[in-house]
Write a structure and sequence with these properties.
The chain is α/β, with parallel strands linked by helices. It is built from eleven helices and 15 strands.
């Protein structure tokens, strides 16, 4: 029996509410065994008073199940989670915000197929337009953290590879937005088949080894769900908040609510819910609620946040993504672009950057 054996056993202890174990989260500070006594030290950062005792009991149960262990001693060190103000923090600890980045915001969804990346691209372009009018050009960044299915380059009309300066990547820029994506680093015919640790390393590099320069806002387009990419991000970059994207129907809003609860557990404030594909207008202006009605507002209310806005189901939005000309760029005076700029303004207000 040694420290490595104990740590391997503790991999079956999951952090409450997640499928990931306390060892991979880095919460086990030390493990020793001597004379039948297994001693483990945990270091947590949480504002939930139930989590330390719950983890202590689970670790004790795990240790007592090991052969040769007569006594289990579990020390739990708890630091109170900081309030969600700049710089941000998560319940699981995390890195520091790179110099020059003013605010960092995750664009997330519980469910795939709700148009999250299309939303993120248009929101980034709208933010760039709003800030440019204030004389702050080139101060929006977009990190494509959807490692398995990076589609930001296509939607932004970008190709090629970023330049390298020493050990750092220089983000590519288009439409006033600085962009980094896995799509720049692999060719279109190469699938990314990686396990969790490789995902975590890539996200760390996108945060720490990219020369973003001076940014007012860095948007992070996350993959759907509540997996390794989401958890790796909050461990690496203190987020100032998250925006949840959903469509109106119950199947989407129920999953979006779970995504919102994940951010609550990580002490990341929810800046709002964005409802996508809210309605389709026919020729006489009548609204057809193809995917139902009111789901975004209900999700926002359930999560204690606001509805940032509703994006109509407009073919030009889809076409803009396919052509690499987001609708906020191709039709800046149109209805869709106006909706995205309104949400950009609301987001800046929520971030205290207006």
């Amino acid at each position: 029996m040694n420290a490595e054996t104990i740590k391997n056993a503790l991999k079956q202890v999951k952090y409450p509410g997640f499928s990931r174990d306390i060892v991979s989260f880095g919460l086990v500070r030390s493990a020793t065994f001597a004379d039948g006594t297994a001693q483990v030290s945990l270091a947590l950062t949480t504002s939930d008073p139930n989590i330390p005792s719950q983890l202590k009991n689970e670790v004790e149960r795990c240790l007592h199940a090991l052969p040769g262990v007569k006594t289990a001693v579990v020390d739990v060190s708890v630091s109170a989670a900081k309030s969600p103000t700049k710089p941000g923090s998560s319940n699981l600890g995390g890195g520091t915000t790179p110099a020059g980045i003013g605010r960092s915001v995750a664009i997330a969804s519980g469910k795939g197929g709700v148009g999250k990346t299309t939303f993120a691209v248009n929101l980034a372009c709208a933010l760039a337009q709003v800030l440019a009018k204030k004389g702050r050009e080139g101060r929006v960044g977009l990190m494509d953290a959807d490692i398995y299915g990076p589609s930001v380059p296509l939607m932004m009309g970008m190709s090629g590879q970023p330049e390298i300066d020493g050990d750092s990547l220089i983000p590519m820029e288009r439409h006033g937005v600085k962009v980094i994506s896995m799509g720049f680093l692999v060719d279109d015919d190469t699938p990314v088949i990686w396990r969790g640790p490789m995902i975590m390393k890539t996200i760390q590099q996108f945060v720490q080894n990219v020369k973003w320069g001076e940014l007012d806002v860095l948007l992070v387009d996350l993959p759907p769900g509540t997996g390794d990419a989401q958890l790796s991000l909050v461990q690496t970059l203190p987020l100032d908040g998250a925006v949840l994207v959903t469509t109106p129907q119950t199947a989407a809003t129920n999953v979006a609510r779970k995504g919102g609860l994940m951010f609550h557990k990580l002490n990341v404030p929810l800046l709002g819910v964005a409802e996508n594909m809210s309605w389709l207008e026919n020729g006489d202006g009548q609204r057809l609620h193809v995917f139902g009605e009111g789901g975004g507002a209900k999700a926002a209310e359930a999560l204690g946040t606001v509805l940032l806005g509703q994006v109509p189901l407009i073919p030009a939005i889809r076409a803009g993504g396919d052509s690499g000309q987001p609708v906020t760029i191709s039709d800046p005076a149109g209805k869709a672009a106006g909706v995205f700029r309104e949400m950009a303004g609301a987001l800046l207000t929520r971030l205290k950057l207006s």
